[in-house]
Amino acid sequence: MAGTAFAALALASLLLPGAHAGEAEIRKNLGASIPQLAHIDEVRKAPMPGLYEVRVGFDVFYTDENGSFLLQGSLLDVKNRKNLTEERVAELSAVKFDQLPLKDAFKIVRGNGKRKLAVFEDPNCGYCKIFEKDLRNVNDVTVYLFLYPILGSDSVAKSRDIWCAKDKAGAWTAWMVDGVKPASASCDTSALERNVAFGRKYNITGTPTLIFADGSRAPGALPAAQVEKMLAAAN
Question: Is the pTM of this model over 0.90?
Fold first, then answer.
């Protein structure tokens, strides 16, 4: 009996601070069965009793206390009509505005510029061009534009030419709104590399991606009315 108690204490001492008793078994069993889950970032109790959340990066899965079963999909709070998985991913992917590397972006100021918005965009992204044209209807905002060339070598070249232009904002708008190709230019483009690295770290997988002053983010070409609504909520 004493040996069993000692073994239990020894196992508890191996668990990370705050870890629950089943975490080691969940990690072991899932990692052994599914190679993609060999390196789990976090295991914690899910809102649904008897279920545990398993997180790998920004991917969220659910399992039982032994790691014998795995669920992939959305966990819904039926009573409160909430998608708990979506809320969790939004929480994980939130970026504090003051932690954005603003030195690697250029500013576009409209009106008094009091409201703030950061946008990650690829110059060859068709949705970004639609978004840019509609964004001109949003006033009193400072847009921090992060060039995010993820659609191929031509995107890298155009981003370089825009970043190295004397008037970055002018070159960007001319291309995205009016279709005027930026003139060839060269300069230090390490900022573009840092933007891509930052995006990978924070799971920015598509363009445009918008980040508001309160850290909330939204993917896709939102219409001006929706941007206004989110700016009002964030500022």
Answer: no
What is the fold, at CATH topology level, of the domain defined by 97-234? Answer: Glutaredoxin (3.40.30)
- What does the domain layout of the chain look like in residue ranges? 2-93, 97-234
The residues, ordered by sequence, that sit 6+ positions from 135 with a Cβ below 8 Å of its Cβ are 143, 224, 227
CATH class of 2-93: alpha beta
Q: Which regions of the chain are under pLDDT 50?
A: 1-18
Supply the pLDDT for residue 93.
79
